[in-house]
Protein backbone atom coordinates (compact mmCIF):
# COMPACT_ATOMS: atom_id res chain seq x y z
CA UNK A 1 0.00 0.00 0.00
CA UNK A 2 1.35 3.46 -0.92
CA UNK A 3 2.19 5.62 2.11
CA UNK A 4 0.59 9.07 2.42
CA UNK A 5 4.02 10.64 1.97
CA UNK A 6 4.54 8.78 -1.31
CA UNK A 7 1.06 9.78 -2.46
CA UNK A 8 1.94 13.41 -1.79
CA UNK A 9 5.08 13.07 -3.93
CA UNK A 10 3.10 11.57 -6.82
CA UNK A 11 0.38 14.21 -6.49
CA UNK A 12 2.89 17.08 -6.42
CA UNK A 13 4.70 15.69 -9.46
CA UNK A 14 1.48 15.25 -11.43
CA UNK A 15 0.37 18.77 -10.49
CA UNK A 16 3.59 20.18 -11.96
CA UNK A 17 3.05 18.20 -15.15
CA UNK A 18 -0.51 19.49 -15.43
CA UNK A 19 0.93 23.01 -15.61
CA UNK A 20 2.83 22.05 -18.73
CA UNK A 21 4.52 24.61 -20.97
CA UNK A 22 3.86 22.42 -24.00
CA UNK A 23 1.02 22.24 -26.47
CA UNK A 24 2.65 19.39 -28.41
CA UNK A 25 6.23 18.46 -27.56
CA UNK A 26 6.29 15.87 -30.37
CA UNK A 27 6.71 18.77 -32.81
CA UNK A 28 10.25 19.14 -31.44
CA UNK A 29 11.20 15.48 -31.99
CA UNK A 30 13.71 14.76 -34.78
CA UNK A 31 11.36 12.31 -36.51
CA UNK A 32 8.51 14.83 -36.79
CA UNK A 33 7.95 15.95 -40.39
CA UNK A 34 6.38 19.45 -40.50
CA UNK A 35 4.15 20.88 -43.20
CA UNK A 36 6.99 23.14 -44.32
CA UNK A 37 10.79 22.90 -44.17
CA UNK A 38 12.30 26.41 -44.02
CA UNK A 39 15.53 26.98 -45.95
CA UNK A 40 15.33 23.67 -47.79
CA UNK A 41 13.21 24.88 -50.69
CA UNK A 42 15.95 24.30 -53.27
CA UNK A 43 16.66 20.75 -52.07
CA UNK A 44 12.92 19.96 -52.10
CA UNK A 45 12.68 21.31 -55.65
CA UNK A 46 15.67 19.26 -56.83
CA UNK A 47 14.51 16.00 -55.25
CA UNK A 48 10.95 16.46 -56.50
CA UNK A 49 12.17 16.95 -60.06
CA UNK A 50 14.22 13.74 -59.84
CA UNK A 51 11.35 11.68 -58.37
CA UNK A 52 8.57 13.15 -60.57
CA UNK A 53 8.59 10.16 -63.01
CA UNK A 54 6.98 8.14 -60.18
CA UNK A 55 3.66 9.78 -60.96
CA UNK A 56 3.77 8.28 -64.47
CA UNK A 57 4.76 4.85 -63.21
CA UNK A 58 8.34 5.31 -64.40
CA UNK A 59 11.57 4.62 -62.53
CA UNK A 60 13.41 7.74 -61.27
CA UNK A 61 17.19 7.93 -61.12
CA UNK A 62 18.97 6.69 -58.05
CA UNK A 63 19.83 9.54 -55.67
CA UNK A 64 22.69 9.93 -53.24
CA UNK A 65 22.43 12.60 -50.53
CA UNK A 66 25.32 13.99 -48.48
CA UNK A 67 25.24 16.35 -45.52
CA UNK A 68 26.22 16.69 -41.88
CA UNK A 69 23.90 15.49 -39.11
CA UNK A 70 20.83 17.70 -38.65
CA UNK A 71 20.89 19.36 -42.08
CA UNK A 72 17.41 18.13 -43.05
CA UNK A 73 18.32 15.23 -45.36
CA UNK A 74 15.91 12.67 -43.93
CA UNK A 75 13.15 15.23 -43.38
CA UNK A 76 13.30 16.42 -47.00
CA UNK A 77 13.21 12.88 -48.40
CA UNK A 78 10.22 11.88 -46.25
CA UNK A 79 8.46 15.17 -46.98
CA UNK A 80 8.84 14.88 -50.76
CA UNK A 81 7.74 11.23 -50.83
CA UNK A 82 4.69 12.06 -48.70
CA UNK A 83 3.71 14.97 -50.95
CA UNK A 84 4.18 12.84 -54.08
CA UNK A 85 1.89 10.16 -52.64
CA UNK A 86 -0.76 12.78 -51.83
CA UNK A 87 -0.44 14.40 -55.25
CA UNK A 88 -0.58 11.05 -57.01
CA UNK A 89 -3.80 10.00 -55.23
CA UNK A 90 -5.46 13.24 -56.28
CA UNK A 91 -4.62 12.74 -59.94
CA UNK A 92 -5.26 9.03 -60.30
CA UNK A 93 -1.62 7.96 -60.42
CA UNK A 94 -0.84 4.23 -60.36
CA UNK A 95 0.94 4.80 -57.07
CA UNK A 96 4.28 3.54 -55.85
CA UNK A 97 5.81 1.82 -52.85
CA UNK A 98 8.37 3.43 -50.59
CA UNK A 99 10.35 1.89 -47.76
CA UNK A 100 12.44 3.92 -45.32
CA UNK A 101 15.20 1.99 -43.52
CA UNK A 102 17.62 3.39 -40.95
CA UNK A 103 20.71 1.28 -41.53
CA UNK A 104 22.08 2.03 -38.08
CA UNK A 105 19.19 -0.08 -36.74
CA UNK A 106 18.83 -2.55 -39.61
CA UNK A 107 22.55 -3.02 -40.25
CA UNK A 108 22.59 -6.45 -41.90
CA UNK A 109 21.62 -7.53 -45.40
CA UNK A 110 19.01 -9.93 -43.98
CA UNK A 111 17.27 -7.27 -41.89
CA UNK A 112 17.16 -4.79 -44.77
CA UNK A 113 15.74 -7.37 -47.18
CA UNK A 114 13.19 -8.54 -44.59
CA UNK A 115 11.97 -4.93 -44.18
CA UNK A 116 11.55 -4.62 -47.95
CA UNK A 117 9.50 -7.82 -48.16
CA UNK A 118 7.30 -6.73 -45.22
CA UNK A 119 6.67 -3.32 -46.85
CA UNK A 120 5.22 -5.22 -49.80
CA UNK A 121 2.92 -7.21 -47.50
CA UNK A 122 5.04 -10.34 -47.29
CA UNK A 123 6.46 -12.07 -44.24
CA UNK A 124 9.98 -13.22 -43.45
CA UNK A 125 11.06 -15.15 -40.33
CA UNK A 126 13.47 -13.36 -38.00
CA UNK A 127 16.18 -15.87 -38.98
CA UNK A 128 16.42 -19.13 -40.88
CA UNK A 129 16.48 -18.13 -44.55
CA UNK A 130 19.44 -17.34 -46.74
CA UNK A 131 19.78 -13.74 -47.90
CA UNK A 132 19.50 -15.03 -51.47
CA UNK A 133 16.09 -16.54 -50.66
CA UNK A 134 14.85 -13.34 -48.99
CA UNK A 135 16.03 -11.33 -52.00
CA UNK A 136 14.19 -13.75 -54.32
CA UNK A 137 10.98 -13.31 -52.32
CA UNK A 138 11.33 -9.53 -52.48
CA UNK A 139 11.90 -9.56 -56.22
CA UNK A 140 9.01 -11.94 -56.96
CA UNK A 141 6.56 -10.09 -54.74
CA UNK A 142 7.44 -6.70 -56.24
CA UNK A 143 7.15 -8.08 -59.76
CA UNK A 144 3.69 -9.49 -58.98
CA UNK A 145 2.54 -6.04 -57.78
CA UNK A 146 3.78 -4.23 -60.89
CA UNK A 147 4.78 -0.96 -59.23
CA UNK A 148 7.84 1.23 -58.83
CA UNK A 149 9.50 1.02 -55.42
CA UNK A 150 11.63 3.70 -53.76
CA UNK A 151 14.08 2.30 -51.19
CA UNK A 152 15.47 4.91 -48.78
CA UNK A 153 18.63 3.73 -47.01
CA UNK A 154 19.43 6.27 -44.29
CA UNK A 155 22.90 6.18 -42.71
CA UNK A 156 23.82 3.81 -45.51
CA UNK A 157 27.48 3.91 -44.41
CA UNK A 158 26.56 1.88 -41.29
CA UNK A 159 25.26 -0.96 -43.48
CA UNK A 160 28.28 -0.97 -45.78
CA UNK A 161 30.80 -0.83 -42.93
CA UNK A 162 29.16 -3.90 -41.36
CA UNK A 163 27.91 -5.95 -44.30
CA UNK A 164 29.80 -4.65 -47.35
CA UNK A 165 28.24 -3.32 -50.56
CA UNK A 166 26.86 -6.56 -52.01
CA UNK A 167 23.26 -5.58 -51.22
CA UNK A 168 23.70 -2.19 -52.88
CA UNK A 169 25.06 -3.91 -55.97
CA UNK A 170 22.06 -6.25 -56.13
CA UNK A 171 19.54 -3.45 -55.57
CA UNK A 172 21.07 -1.23 -58.25
CA UNK A 173 21.06 -4.19 -60.69
CA UNK A 174 17.69 -5.73 -59.83
CA UNK A 175 15.90 -3.77 -62.57
CA UNK A 176 17.59 -6.03 -65.13
CA UNK A 177 15.61 -8.93 -63.61
CA UNK A 178 12.24 -7.13 -63.48
CA UNK A 179 9.80 -6.43 -66.30
CA UNK A 180 6.60 -5.12 -64.62
CA UNK A 181 8.22 -3.32 -61.67
CA UNK A 182 11.24 -1.08 -61.07
CA UNK A 183 13.41 -0.09 -58.10
CA UNK A 184 15.14 3.19 -57.28
CA UNK A 185 17.46 3.73 -54.32
CA UNK A 186 17.94 6.88 -52.26
CA UNK A 187 21.08 6.69 -50.14
CA UNK A 188 21.67 9.13 -47.28
CA UNK A 189 24.95 9.59 -45.39
CA UNK A 190 26.90 12.01 -43.19
CA UNK A 191 30.19 10.61 -44.54
CA UNK A 192 31.43 12.73 -47.46
CA UNK A 193 34.08 10.10 -48.27
CA UNK A 194 31.61 7.22 -48.31
CA UNK A 195 31.63 6.74 -52.08
CA UNK A 196 35.38 6.05 -52.01
CA UNK A 197 34.65 2.81 -50.12
CA UNK A 198 32.32 1.38 -52.76
CA UNK A 199 32.97 -0.92 -55.67
CA UNK A 200 33.18 1.24 -58.85
CA UNK A 201 30.17 -0.58 -60.34
CA UNK A 202 28.02 0.26 -57.30
CA UNK A 203 29.34 3.81 -57.19
CA UNK A 204 28.39 4.55 -60.78
CA UNK A 205 24.87 3.14 -60.39
CA UNK A 206 24.08 4.57 -56.97
CA UNK A 207 25.18 8.14 -57.64
CA UNK A 208 23.15 8.86 -60.79
CA UNK A 209 22.06 12.08 -59.05
CA UNK A 210 23.88 13.60 -56.07
CA UNK A 211 22.50 16.23 -53.69
CA UNK A 212 24.51 18.05 -51.03
CA UNK A 213 22.81 19.60 -48.00
CA UNK A 214 24.75 22.52 -46.49
CA UNK A 215 24.63 23.16 -42.72
CA UNK A 216 22.19 25.74 -41.36
CA UNK A 217 23.45 29.07 -40.01
CA UNK A 218 22.20 30.68 -36.78
CA UNK A 219 19.56 32.81 -38.54
CA UNK A 220 18.14 29.82 -40.43
CA UNK A 221 18.07 27.74 -37.24
CA UNK A 222 16.20 30.55 -35.47
CA UNK A 223 13.57 30.50 -38.23
CA UNK A 224 13.18 26.72 -37.91
CA UNK A 225 12.88 26.87 -34.13
CA UNK A 226 10.44 29.76 -34.19
CA UNK A 227 8.14 27.90 -36.58
CA UNK A 228 8.24 24.70 -34.52
CA UNK A 229 7.95 26.54 -31.18
CA UNK A 230 4.66 28.15 -32.28
CA UNK A 231 3.13 24.66 -32.42
CA UNK A 232 5.08 23.07 -29.58
CA UNK A 233 4.65 25.59 -26.74
CA UNK A 234 1.80 27.50 -25.15
CA UNK A 235 1.76 31.20 -26.08
CA UNK A 236 4.11 33.38 -24.07
CA UNK A 237 6.06 30.62 -22.26
CA UNK A 238 9.35 31.19 -24.11
CA UNK A 239 11.46 33.92 -22.56
CA UNK A 240 13.28 36.44 -24.74
CA UNK A 241 16.50 35.10 -26.20
CA UNK A 242 15.75 31.39 -25.72
CA UNK A 243 15.33 30.59 -29.42
CA UNK A 244 18.37 32.67 -30.41
CA UNK A 245 20.52 30.98 -27.76
CA UNK A 246 19.50 27.47 -28.90
CA UNK A 247 20.22 28.46 -32.51
CA UNK A 248 23.64 29.94 -31.71
CA UNK A 249 24.73 26.83 -29.79
CA UNK A 250 23.68 24.53 -32.65
CA UNK A 251 25.19 26.80 -35.32
CA UNK A 252 28.60 26.49 -33.64
CA UNK A 253 28.22 22.71 -33.80
CA UNK A 254 27.99 22.37 -37.61
CA UNK A 255 24.49 23.86 -37.99
CA UNK A 256 22.70 20.85 -36.53
CA UNK A 257 18.93 21.47 -36.48
CA UNK A 258 18.34 18.29 -34.47
CA UNK A 259 20.64 19.63 -31.80
CA UNK A 260 18.75 22.93 -31.70
CA UNK A 261 15.36 21.18 -31.46
CA UNK A 262 16.61 18.85 -28.72
CA UNK A 263 17.92 21.80 -26.73
CA UNK A 264 14.59 23.60 -26.94
CA UNK A 265 12.56 20.51 -26.05
CA UNK A 266 14.75 19.46 -23.10
CA UNK A 267 14.80 23.07 -21.82
CA UNK A 268 11.00 22.98 -21.80
CA UNK A 269 11.01 19.64 -19.96
CA UNK A 270 13.44 20.98 -17.34
CA UNK A 271 11.25 24.05 -16.78
CA UNK A 272 8.26 21.74 -16.46
CA UNK A 273 10.00 19.52 -13.89
CA UNK A 274 10.95 22.57 -11.85
CA UNK A 275 7.37 23.86 -11.94
CA UNK A 276 8.37 27.01 -13.85
CA UNK A 277 5.79 28.62 -16.13
CA UNK A 278 8.39 30.27 -18.39
CA UNK A 279 11.26 28.63 -20.31
CA UNK A 280 14.41 30.72 -19.81
CA UNK A 281 17.98 30.73 -21.11
CA UNK A 282 19.10 29.19 -17.81
CA UNK A 283 16.91 26.16 -18.62
CA UNK A 284 18.65 25.86 -22.00
CA UNK A 285 22.06 25.92 -20.26
CA UNK A 286 20.93 23.03 -18.04
CA UNK A 287 19.51 21.23 -21.09
CA UNK A 288 22.84 21.54 -22.87
CA UNK A 289 24.64 19.96 -19.90
CA UNK A 290 22.07 17.16 -19.71
CA UNK A 291 22.22 16.36 -23.44
CA UNK A 292 26.03 16.41 -23.54
CA UNK A 293 26.17 14.09 -20.55
CA UNK A 294 23.82 11.62 -22.21
CA UNK A 295 25.73 11.81 -25.51
CA UNK A 296 29.06 11.11 -23.80
CA UNK A 297 27.59 8.11 -22.00
CA UNK A 298 26.17 6.68 -25.24
CA UNK A 299 29.46 7.11 -27.13
CA UNK A 300 31.70 5.77 -24.35
CA UNK A 301 29.54 2.64 -23.98
CA UNK A 302 30.42 1.61 -27.54
CA UNK A 303 34.21 2.02 -27.17
CA UNK A 304 36.66 -0.91 -27.08
CA UNK A 305 38.26 -1.75 -23.72
CA UNK A 306 41.65 -0.12 -24.42
CA UNK A 307 40.01 3.12 -25.56
CA UNK A 308 38.10 3.21 -22.27
CA UNK A 309 41.33 2.64 -20.35
CA UNK A 310 43.02 5.53 -22.17
CA UNK A 311 40.10 7.79 -21.24
CA UNK A 312 40.23 6.58 -17.64
CA UNK A 313 43.97 7.28 -17.43
CA UNK A 314 43.35 10.88 -18.59
CA UNK A 315 40.45 11.32 -16.16
CA UNK A 316 42.36 9.96 -13.16
CA UNK A 317 45.27 12.31 -13.95
CA UNK A 318 42.99 15.30 -13.47
CA UNK A 319 41.87 15.44 -17.10
CA UNK A 320 45.19 16.25 -18.75
CA UNK A 321 48.57 14.87 -19.84
CA UNK A 322 51.42 16.94 -21.27
CA UNK A 323 52.67 14.11 -23.49
CA UNK A 324 51.58 10.81 -25.02
CA UNK A 325 54.50 9.15 -23.22
CA UNK A 326 53.19 10.14 -19.79
CA UNK A 327 49.71 8.98 -20.78
CA UNK A 328 51.12 5.63 -21.91
CA UNK A 329 52.80 5.03 -18.53
CA UNK A 330 49.51 5.59 -16.68
CA UNK A 331 47.60 3.51 -19.21
CA UNK A 332 49.99 0.57 -18.68
CA UNK A 333 49.40 0.74 -14.93
CA UNK A 334 45.65 0.44 -15.45
CA UNK A 335 46.05 -2.46 -17.87
CA UNK A 336 48.34 -4.23 -15.38
CA UNK A 337 45.77 -3.73 -12.61
CA UNK A 338 43.20 -5.50 -14.82
CA UNK A 339 45.60 -8.33 -15.59
CA UNK A 340 45.50 -7.62 -19.33
CA UNK A 341 48.11 -7.08 -22.03
CA UNK A 342 48.77 -3.45 -23.09
CA UNK A 343 48.78 -2.26 -26.69
CA UNK A 344 51.82 -0.41 -28.06
CA UNK A 345 52.49 3.27 -27.46
CA UNK A 346 51.91 3.90 -31.15
CA UNK A 347 48.48 2.29 -30.88
CA UNK A 348 47.66 4.46 -27.85
CA UNK A 349 48.61 7.49 -29.94
CA UNK A 350 46.16 6.30 -32.62
CA UNK A 351 43.47 5.78 -29.95
CA UNK A 352 43.96 9.40 -28.82
CA UNK A 353 43.36 10.54 -32.41
CA UNK A 354 40.20 8.42 -32.61
CA UNK A 355 38.93 9.82 -29.30
CA UNK A 356 39.62 13.33 -30.56
CA UNK A 357 37.51 12.66 -33.67
CA UNK A 358 34.66 11.57 -31.38
CA UNK A 359 34.97 14.81 -29.43
CA UNK A 360 35.91 13.09 -26.16
CA UNK A 361 39.43 14.54 -25.89
CA UNK A 362 41.46 17.38 -27.37
CA UNK A 363 45.06 16.82 -28.47
CA UNK A 364 47.14 19.93 -29.07
CA UNK A 365 50.56 19.60 -30.75
CA UNK A 366 53.24 21.49 -28.80
CA UNK A 367 56.76 22.23 -30.02
CA UNK A 368 59.37 21.64 -27.29
CA UNK A 369 62.32 22.93 -29.25
CA UNK A 370 65.27 20.53 -29.28
CA UNK A 371 63.13 17.96 -27.44
CA UNK A 372 60.84 17.74 -30.46
CA UNK A 373 57.06 17.86 -30.68
CA UNK A 374 54.51 16.26 -28.37
CA UNK A 375 50.79 16.37 -27.76
CA UNK A 376 49.00 17.86 -24.78
CA UNK A 377 45.96 15.68 -24.22
CA UNK A 378 42.89 16.85 -22.28
CA UNK A 379 39.38 15.61 -21.61
CA UNK A 380 36.85 17.51 -23.71
CA UNK A 381 34.03 16.87 -21.26
CA UNK A 382 33.33 17.10 -17.55
CA UNK A 383 35.36 14.73 -15.33
CA UNK A 384 32.35 13.41 -13.40
CA UNK A 385 30.42 12.80 -16.62
CA UNK A 386 33.32 10.84 -18.08
CA UNK A 387 33.84 8.73 -14.95
CA UNK A 388 30.12 7.97 -14.80
CA UNK A 389 30.12 6.90 -18.44
CA UNK A 390 33.18 4.69 -17.97
CA UNK A 391 31.77 3.15 -14.79
CA UNK A 392 28.99 1.48 -16.79
CA UNK A 393 31.69 -1.09 -17.61
CA UNK A 394 31.97 -3.32 -14.50
CA UNK A 395 35.74 -3.87 -14.87
CA UNK A 396 36.39 -0.16 -15.31
CA UNK A 397 34.12 0.60 -12.35
CA UNK A 398 36.29 -1.60 -10.11
CA UNK A 399 39.40 0.32 -11.21
CA UNK A 400 37.72 3.66 -10.49
CA UNK A 401 36.75 2.47 -7.01
CA UNK A 402 40.28 1.22 -6.25
CA UNK A 403 42.01 4.39 -7.45
CA UNK A 404 39.60 6.69 -5.62
CA UNK A 405 40.24 4.71 -2.45
CA UNK A 406 43.96 5.46 -2.54
What's the CATH class label of the largest domain? Alpha Beta
Question: Which structural category fits the helices and strands?
Answer: alpha/beta
Q: What name does CATH use for the topology of the largest domain?
A: Rossmann fold
Largest sheet report: 5 strands, parallel
The named CATH superfamily of the largest domain: P-loop containing nucleotide triphosphate hydrolases
Low-pLDDT parts are none
User: How many structural domains can be distinguished in the coordinates?
Assistant: 3
Side-by-side strand order of the widest sheet: 2-3-4-1-5
Q: Based on Cα principal axes, name the global outline.
A: globular
Q: What is the terminal-to-terminal distance?
A: 44 Å
Tell me the helix content.
Answer: 40-55%
Gyration radius over CA: 25 Å
Query: Helices and strands, in N-to-C order?
Result: HHEHEHHEHHEHEHHHHHEHHEEHH
Overall mean pLDDT stands at 90
Counted by DSSP, the helix tally is: 17
Number of strands: 8
Residue share in β-strands: 5-15%
- Regarding quaternary structure, what we see is single chain
Question: Based on the structure given, which CATH architecture of the largest domain is correct?
Answer: 3-Layer(aba) Sandwich
Amino acid sequence: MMSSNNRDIVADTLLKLENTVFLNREVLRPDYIPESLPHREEQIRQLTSVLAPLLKGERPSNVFIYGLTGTGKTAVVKYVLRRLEEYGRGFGSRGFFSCYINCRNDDTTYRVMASLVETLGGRVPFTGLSTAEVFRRFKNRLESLGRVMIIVLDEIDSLVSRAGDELLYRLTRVNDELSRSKVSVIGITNDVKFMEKLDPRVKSSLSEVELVFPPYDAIQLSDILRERAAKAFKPGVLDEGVIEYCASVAAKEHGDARRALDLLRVAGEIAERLGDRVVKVEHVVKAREEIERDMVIDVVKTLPQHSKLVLLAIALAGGRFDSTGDLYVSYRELVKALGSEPVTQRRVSDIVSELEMLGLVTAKVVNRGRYGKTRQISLATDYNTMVKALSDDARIASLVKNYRGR
